[in-house]
Every structure is written in C-alpha cells, then in structure tokens.
C-alpha cells in the first residue's frame, strides 16, 4: 500500500511540476525557519543549565545605589555582602564571589628564553570555593585547592595553549603586571594550579583566567565594605532550603551590615540614608534566569539576552509553520478540477471516503518528509551565515542531539496533519456523478475559508513587516541619538597607564596629520568606572551618588562637551587640580540651581575628607550606554587627589570628513605607541562603535527577524499564487463569456485583482492593533524610544499590495488574453 501511495505521489509531482515545486519550496522554507529558530531558542534556554547545582544557585542583586530615580537593580555588590549572607542565613550552603579585576599584562618566558606576553582582559578573581558551586570541569589540577593559595591562577585550555603550547601548564609560573583598576602597577608571579575546559558559549560566567581572591590584599581588608560594588555574589542553597526562605531573610541584612559602611564613609546611619526615600535592598535571582530575565538589571560579568525576543521568535516560528501549511492547502485546492475527477474515478472503482482521505494525508506526509530532507540540507548550508548575522555559534548534529530528530519528526507529523486536513476532507466528500458531469461547485463556505486563509497569511506578514521596520527604526534612532557630545571621529587608545611620559606621548599624537585634539582620562563614554557618595558642603544630613572621571584640560574640548555655566580646567591655574566640573544632573542632585550661583560652591568627599570647588557645569551627556538614564556626574582633574582606578586612556579626535585618512591615522598612532610603550600590544576602539555594542543583542534580533519575516512573506506569496491559479481555474469560462460580450482585458484584470486587494486591506486593518500592542511592549524595554508613526504601517501595507498586484496581475492578464473560443468550445 505504501508503495502504491509513493508511486502516485511521484506521478503527481511529475505531472504537476509547477505546483509540486511551489509546495516543496513553501514547506522547505517553513522547516528551515523552524529549525533555525529552534536552535536559537534552545541555545538561549540552555544558558547555565550545565552546572550540576544550577537549580540551587542564586545571584544576589541589590538596589542601584549609584543613580537617582533609576529603578534598575544592580548585579554588583560590595565584598561584605558575602560575609553577611554566610553569617545570617543558615539556608545558604555556600557563598562565593566573582570580581572582574580588569586587564593584566601577563607574560611567560619559555626554556628558550622567548617571552610570550598578552594583555588579558577576561580575568576574574574568585573565592576558593568557586568550583564547589559551579561545575566547570577541570582537565588538570585539584578543584578543592586550585584557588586556595594567594597568587594562584586557573587557565582555560585555550589560554594554556596560548602560553605553553602542548607543554603541561600545571605548576608553570606567569608574571602578571597589575594594571587593573585599583592596581599599583606591580609585577607579581602567579602559579598555574589548574586547567579548566574551555567555557561553553551558553555560560553567563566567562573567563580566560581565574585568580584567587585572596591574592588581593585590598579585597581582604575591605570585608566590611558594602559600597565597593564590583563583586557578583552567588549563593548555593541547601538541598532542603527554599528560595522563599532566602528571600524572606534578605531584607534584614542591609540595615544590619551596611550601617558600618554608611557611618564609615558617609557619616550617617541607615535610617538617615533612607530618610529621603532612598533604598538599599537585596534580591535573590535564580542563576538560570540571568540570561533571559535581566532586562531591568545592570549586569557586570557579561551581556544578557531577553525572554521577549524568544517569545517573538517562537511566535514567528508557529506562524511560519501555519503559513506553510496554509500554502499547501491553497495549492492543493488550486488543482481542484483535475484532482476532483481523479478522485471520482477512484470512488467509482471502489475507494471509500476514508481511503481517499488517507491518500491525501499520505501525500501531505510525503511532501513534508521530502521537504524535511531538503530543509535539513539547506539549514546546514545557511547555518554559518545565520551564526554570523546573529553572533551565535549554533550547530546542527542529528546524531549527537536526539531532540533535533524528535522536533523534526513532530514537525513533519504536525505539518502533514495541518496541510492534508483540508484537502482530505474537501476532496473526499463530493458526489462522483456530479464531479464527472462537471456540475460540482466548491460553494460559498469553501470560498470564505480560502479567503480567510489568505487574509490570515497576509495579516501575519503585515505584523512581521511592521515589526521589522520599527525594530530597525528604533536601532537607527539609538545609533543617531544625541548623546550630549560628539561621539563621531573619536578613537580611544587603551592602556595609557603603560606610558611613562604621558604628556610627551600626547604631544606626539597631536602632531599626527588629521588629529584634531588629544585628551587623557580615566574613563571614556560609554564606560565610566568610578563613583562614590558626596555631600554639598555644610549638608552632612544628605549624600548624593556621584559618578566621576578624572581628566585633563583637553577632555571637555576633545569630546566637545557643552559648557552651560563657568569654565573648563586651565593649565594656568594650579588650584584647578582640586576643583570639579559637574553635569546639570549632579547640580540638581545637590539641591542647587543650574546658573551662575553654583560657581564657587563646594562638594565634600567623606571617603577622603576632601572638599572640591565647582568651577563649571557641562550639559548632561550620556557617559553610559543609552539603556540607562543620565545620572549625576563629575569631572575631576587628572592630577587631583580624588580616588580613581589606575586605567588611563588617550582620547583622540580625528578631523571630520577624513574617512580615507583613518588608516594612516591608526598606523601613525600605533607607531607612536610602540615608541613610548615598547612591545606592549596596541589596543584601540571607536567611541561610536562602543555605544553600538550595548545594543548588539537587539541588532542580532533585528537581523534574525528580517530573515524570518522574509521567509513568511515568501510563503504568503506562494499562498496567494495558489489562490490566484485556483480562482482562474474556476472562472475561466466566466472570463471567456465576459470577453465575448465585450469586456476589455483591463476590466477583467480589475475585477479579479480588486477581490484580492480587498482581502489584503482587511488583513492590514485586522493586524494593525496587534502590531501596536506588540511594538509598544517591546519599546517599553528602552529608556529612549521612537514613537509609533503611521509610515511604518503604510510601508508594510504598500509593499504587500504591490507584491500581490504583481503576482496576480501576470496570471490574470494571461487568462484574460486567452482566446474565448478555446474555453467555450464545449458549451
């Protein structure tokens, strides 16, 4: 019996090459899209689930204490939080911390006295019990002792090969120059105590090197601090404990333990700190939820995704499958005239309705199975390109991943059932006598159903087109939004702390052709590393969070910051080294007016018991990515006493309109770098690209959405093509009669095209509210967003109408130009 169905299937494919090809393309497009989306979603959902105790690990987040009127949480806590958790919450089995140390210059001299030096940026300091909480398998070494001793370092396999090749890394010594934030530039010797397998791509925690936490004396001495917020703190709950028990006990900790920090740094109690509505709270977040549920959290260790993107792509996947199945149904009914007579002969020869239904279901199953085979091959071919566009490392391996086979099998069955249902029911219930006479009609209900399917297809296409347009519109808005300074043509030379003679190096850079300005700073937008609590002089009852940068006199003109009040630092005034320039937000946070009256006022820094006079106010600018609102910010002099990290950056502005000169400028920058920094690696980045990096995940989502929107539109067009062919088969004689009685080709074209244009317009009206709802929810995740304007909907509707007119126009004109004698000769 199966052989019989296969032979019929092959015969029909050979006889109806056009319909078969379109059917196969439509189903293949649906399967390829589904597989790509499945791989993407599966990868996102798998984040951090490879840890043996993943379901018992929680990250401790806290209120964002470094901003005003900002409801985000902060993944970073002070070093003292871990001690409080361990002392107060018995349900916690283990507490461990991770601290991004910044960059180290790491070198190794081999037996041939050849040096191998690298600027390592992916380094984390970890507590000794790190491997007791997280399941990063060791290739060599002892997990229990690898991070116990000071100056211990754990390498990934790839990092070990980079330094030692195929030699055994265990016990080797690395020289580490501490150029990290808060480092002193000293050189220490670290011993390799373990080698860990390379970090999988679905891990929030990512590193090339782990160093023992007790290697840093400053961390050990700061166990009381809750304000050095550069640590991510994780807890492993006892097997019998519940998350609710942990959450219930967290509120008591800040009041009890942060008090020490507040009195020591800010000279105030916890009650005084919270008196003006400020909060300091702790929250427990499941470790496995960090990747997808951290939209409202400032994360320190890694970038995150969004569950909204998964919902959108999963919805797109479902709709694409439905569109593919609808396309198959429409094309099957388009062959109605031929297939109805074929089925009539089978009924006359003894086939019952059930046998005919099985035949059509089997045909759909064979089509889907063939499409699945082609779809697998196409997916393997396009997956590398898809990975490039989305920034992933997805792979398809049927033999290693049984879930893929199960998904593919389920997809074939579901698509077969959906695709074959309507043809099986519709083409098996007719009267064979009427069919053979040619008097059988499809009826009004059948037409309504088919029109409804076409409207559904184009409604989904409308949603996808509008969403794609608005997503790119939003990303373009963020890319071009005024950030308060000129971010174009700015290149940042990193690791300036390796330059001993900073001023001479700066003068050398200024001498490069097309270089306009050069400034020095400890931070450059969109990254700002320093911040603390300050007070308006004479108001010890209130502190304000102030993020700040140390910079020289050229910083303001190089970034082209706008001075609102006062002046910039001056080389001619030595006292400026202990003065400060504030932004408008900071002036308001201290309770002052943004006018001349602020000049000469002073802010007090309790941490150093120093006072700084305000000499100027700059217009608010974004020194963090656009995902965050502008916060109070200050610019202190590069040579001033305020505490800061040890990193230094040379900010170079290149003349506008010199795109062709960039290569020469960069080559000259590197040449001067090696003159002053020797063999140290030359590193740089562009400020505008750094801002764009913050929305990299959204850009990848936009590219993926574009791909799948194009797939859906293609399938919808196949469905429309099927409906047009079906309609023309049914109305061939009507068209012939109209021509005989004098109808023009144009009037016949308008008659048929008008019907489908109306269907598309109805699709536009029906889908518009859904578009508005979905896009409004997505835009809520942005601090700054574009308004929803009609032109995106007009563009989507216009493109669909134009596409439908082109598709229908050709076939209608072809039918209208036929000789009416040929179609009416049997009448």
UniProtKB/TrEMBL annotation:
Pfam families per record? FtsX, MacB_PCD
Transmembrane recorded as keyword: yes
Q: Name one GO cellular component term.
A: plasma membrane
What membrane topology does this protein have?
Multi-pass membrane protein
MacB-like periplasmic core domain ranges (all copies): 20-250, 458-621
For this UniProt record, the keywords arranged alphabetically read as follows: Cell membrane, Membrane, Transmembrane, Transmembrane helix
Where is the protein situated, by its record's location annotation?
Answer: Cell membrane
Q: Give a GO molecular function annotation for the protein.
A: transmembrane transporter activity
Q: Which residue ranges does the record assign to the ABC3 transporter permease C-terminal domain?
A: 318-432, 707-820
Against InterPro entries, the record matches this protein to: ABC3_permease_C (IPR003838), MacB_PCD (IPR025857), Macrolide_Exporter_MacB (IPR050250)
- Bilayer-crossing residues are 21-41, 308-331, 356-384, 404-427, 448-472, 705-728, 735-752, 758-776, 788-813
- Protein name, as recorded: ABC transporter permease
Q: Which organism is it from?
A: Dawidia soli
